[in-house]
Write a structure and sequence with these properties.
Number of strands: 23
Largest sheet: 9 strands, antiparallel
Low-confidence stretches: 1-20, 38-57
Distance between the termini: 181 Å
Number of helices: 0
Order of helices and strands: EEEEEEEEEEEEEEEEEEEEEEE
Helix content: under 10%
Strand content: 35-45%
Length: 357
């Protein structure tokens, strides 16, 4: 039988100036000695402290610099519940962060997103600074402040608007603008279009449409309506109301306003010339062969391209008497198949002027 010798002794004494007392117990087994120390505190008896370096110390006065491994429990760091959604605040409590805690200073752009932040970039929803790419698409209601510039060259336009109108009960507007005009220059415009620095078309603040094209370019405004009919306005012979897809002219003002032509197709059939105070008829602009013109006060002349002209009357039933101081000249059948020219007076009496032989 192996003989075991166990020696027990205990000693209570203060350590390192502490008021705490410690109980040391030494146990020897098979030549090996193990020393245990039990901390005796006034209100927390039974705390066991084993010093790895053989020195026992108070568990309430440990130096944090001695922590070289492991993790301090979150409950020992602060009050409250520690989780992945909160942080340890300066008042030693676990809590969440909110934007209203930032009351001064400016957050660095590098903390807001990746990429380069400057006057030409914006912060995108994926947390990156990006430039506005060509052909950016906007949907819903967007509000711009300041002046916006669109410099994209495209066959579909720098601004391309393609809304969907799908409600019969809604009055839609493709472009809607209302200017608050408290004080503006008389030359202000609601719309101003042109090339380079030259304005070619604008709508004034009072609603007047102004066309300003150099004469060498042939100023012209073409307005086409149903079946291609419309209004073509220009200088010289380029002013008219058109029809048939804009290829034929129904009404045209020529030569700086000296003649107004009413046409069928591209052939003039009637023209009013304010210079000669005449009304002309013909089959073309250069073929006006019948003219009714003013000779003098209260006198008309009928003439033709060769000099003379005739007035043709068609038989009719005798009309009612004319107003006082007037006379009606008409043609009628005399009852025997012959045409005669009659003069009808206000009294109702008719006088035969001539009869067919």
């Amino acid at each position: 039988m192996r003989l075991f010798v166990i020696l027990f002794f205990s000693l209570c004494l203060p350590l390192h100036g502490q008021t705490t007392q410690y109980l040391f117990t030494t146990k020897t087994t098979n030549g090996s000695t193990i020393t245990f120390g039990a901390e005796l505190l006034t209100n927390t008896p039974g705390h066991l402290v084993i010093g790895g370096d053989g020195i026992l110390a108070s568990s309430t006065a440990l130096n944090a610099s001695n922590l070289s491994s492991g993790t301090v429990p979150t409950a020992r760091l602060g009050s409250g519940t520690a989780s992945s959604s909160n942080v340890l605040r300066g008042d030693q409590s676990w809590g969440t962060l909110s934007a209203d805690m930032i009351t001064s200073g400016t957050i660095s752009t590098a903390r807001l997103g990746s990429g380069t932040a400057n006057s030409t970039t914006y912060l995108r929803g994926d947390g990156s600074w990006q430039t506005v790419s060509a052909g950016v698409s906007l949907s819903g209601t967007n509000q711009w402040t300041g002046q916006q510039s669109f410099n994209t060259a495209s066959t579909t336009g720098a601004i391309n608007i393609n809304p969907t109108w799908n409600s019969a009960g809604t009055v839609f507007s493709g472009i809607y603008m209302r200017a608050t005009d408290t004080s503006s220059n008389a030359g202000s415009s609601l719309i101003d279009l042109g090339t380079g620095s030259t304005s070619t078309f604008r709508v004034s603040r009072t609603g007047n449409a102004v066309l300003n094209v150099p004469s060498s370019a042939g100023p012209r405004v073409d307005l086409y309506g149903f079946a291609g009919g419309g209004l073509a306005v220009g200088y010289g012979t380029s002013m008219g109301i058109t029809g048939g897809g804009g290829t034929t002219t129904a009404l045209r003002l020529d030569n700086g306003g000296t003649a107004l032509f009413i046409t069928a197709g591209n052939n003039a059939t009637m023209a009013v010339n304010p210079t000669t105070t005449s009304l002309s008829f013909g089959t073309g602009v250069a073929s006006m062969d019948t003219v009714i013109s003013r000779v003098s006060a209260a006198r008309l002349s009928i003439s033709g391209s060769s000099g003379g002209a005739a007035l043709q009357l068609t038989e009719m039933t005798a009309p009612t008497g004319p107003a006082a101081n007037t006379v009606l000249i008409y043609a009628e059948d005399n009852g025997s198949g012959k045409t005669r020219i009659m003069a009808l007076f206000p009294s109702g009496a008719a006088q035969q002027l001539a009869i067919e032989p």
